[in-house]
Design a protein that fits this description.
The chain is mainly α. It has helices at residues 4-7, 13-24, 27-36, 45-48, 50-53, 71-80, 99-115; strands at 59-63, 85-89. It has a domain at 42-115: Rossmann fold, CATH 3.40.50.1820. 52% of the residues lie in helices and 9% in strands.
């Protein structure tokens, strides 16, 4: 796993504390389990199986400077799943705790909550 400073484009004390909280909550344990068990294989499983989940609403939020999951992967998923929405966050890397990614995710979920009322 990359050190925290390499997963984020900018370091902010509040976000560092959020990340520490997530790690205490088992995020690291979950990620290690998937990596050790090769649960991400084959690499194109999601793209090949998109027909099975096409009916599920999908919003893809991608950091422009993500080194772990390059933006081209999000573009490939959106191309295979044109019903999805794609937002490339200009000032973000990989972490969901980055301000731009966090704001996009909250906005998406707020929109879903409003639409379901």
């Amino acid at each position: 796993m990359l050190p925290f400073r390499q997963l984020r484009l900018r370091s902010e004390p509040a976000c560092v504390e959020c990340f520490r909280f997530a790690l205490r909550g088992g995020l690291a344990r979950l990620e290690v389990h998937y990596m050790r068990s090769n649960q991400f294989e084959p690499d194109d499983a999601l793209l090949r199986g998109v027909e099975r989940i096409r009916h599920i609403p999908c919003a893809i939020v991608q950091g422009k400077y993500d080194l772990l999951c390059p933006p081209i992967t999000a573009v490939a998923l959106h191309t295979a799943w044109p019903e999805s929405t794609l937002q490339i966050i200009e000032d973000a890397g990989h972490s969901a705790f980055e301000p731009g990614i966090r704001a996009a995710l909250v906005s998406i979920m707020d929109g879903r909550r409003t639409a379901s009322k």
